[in-house]
Design a protein that fits this description.
Blueprint: H1 2-17, H2 23-29, E1 31-36, E2 45-46, E3 52-53, H3 55-67, E4 70-75, H4 78-86, E5 92-93, H5 101-104, E6 107-109, E7 114-116, E8 118-123, E9 139-142, H6 147-154, E10 158-161, H7 165-173, E11 180-183, H8 184-193, E12 199-204, E13 209-211, E14 214-216, H9 220-235, H10 238-247
Parallel strand pairs: 1-4, 1-5, 9-10
Antiparallel strand pairs: 2-3, 5-14, 6-14, 7-13, 8-11, 8-12
Length: 253
């Protein structure tokens, strides 16, 4: 009985080792497991048919193809997404995870595959606001705890609290706010869906925030292959096609 139990335990250990998240294990399993939310359009969400789609999803599929393996998406809430990587629920996370020093201390990142900037958005006919400095004394529609809200306050704006981008834009459109500072990717997605909406970008921050593919720590071989895949995706025009599909613009820089 002891021998049987030991053998069974060893088999379990071998089985989990094949999913440890290294390049060798991914190749051996023949599958790249990707953690993603599935509720964050246009990056990772479900379309009307129920299929998982989005910018990040398509990038993930292309990476797996160039690694020569199948892809398996494992959906989870944002709060537990990176923790799931640490507990080996998947091999990588592709979900707009910003590359920060704190995260780099715990995980490895690919090179950036998308960047975002804070942009200042006003109505098309607004001639009073042309820069962040012009927000002084104006009303900015912002999520009160966001970095964008902090930027608006530092510029001298009074904040009109909202629950996110869509509500902020609506307040600008209806004149209940003079402007909103928000993410350029959200703006591009909005204009892709509603090209005739009378809003415009009048200023943007010079510094961009980059997101990368996150994998378990000390995985240089896997990172190198993902970077190689990303280079190939850009070189053959695939990245441009995906970028235009979801944003109508190149979002790599």
């Amino acid at each position: 009985m002891k021998l049987t139990l030991a053998t069974f335990t060893a088999a379990l250990l071998l089985g989990t080792a094949a999913h440890a998240g290294s390049l060798e294990d991914i190749k051996s399993a023949g599958t790249l497991r990707i953690g993603t939310e599935g509720t964050y359009a246009p990056f990772t969400y479900h379309d009307a048919s129920g299929a998982l789609v989005g910018f990040d999803v398509e990038i993930g599929r292309e990476i797996a193809e160039r690694l020569g393996v199948e892809v398996e998406f494992v959906e989870g809430k944002w709060d537990g997404l990176i923790a799931g990587l640490a507990s080996d629920r998947y091999d990588a996370v592709i979900n707009q995870v910003g590359i920060t020093e704190e995260r780099q201390a715990r995980f490895d990142f690919s090179k950036p595959y998308i960047v975002s900037k804070a942009v200042l958005i006003v109505k098309d006919d607004n001639e009073d606001i042309a820069s962040f400095a012009d927000l002084d004394g104006k009303r900015a529609a912002q999520s009160l705890t966001s970095n964008y809200g902090r930027i608006a306050e530092e510029a001298g704006a009074s904040l009109v609290g909202t629950e996110g981008f869509d509500q902020s834009i609506q307040l600008v459109l209806t004149g209940r706010a003079d402007a909103t500072i928000n993410d350029n990717l959200s703006y591009l997605d909005f204009k892709k869906q509603k090209p005739d909406a009378p809003v415009k970008i009048v200023a943007s921050e010079a510094e961009a925030a980059a997101s990368g593919v996150v994998v378990q720590k000390d995985n240089p071989e896997l990172v190198a292959e993902i970077d190689k895949a990303l280079d190939a995706i850009r070189a053959d025009g695939t990245y441009e096609t995906i970028s235009q599909k979801y944003f109508g613009a190149d979002v790599s820089r």
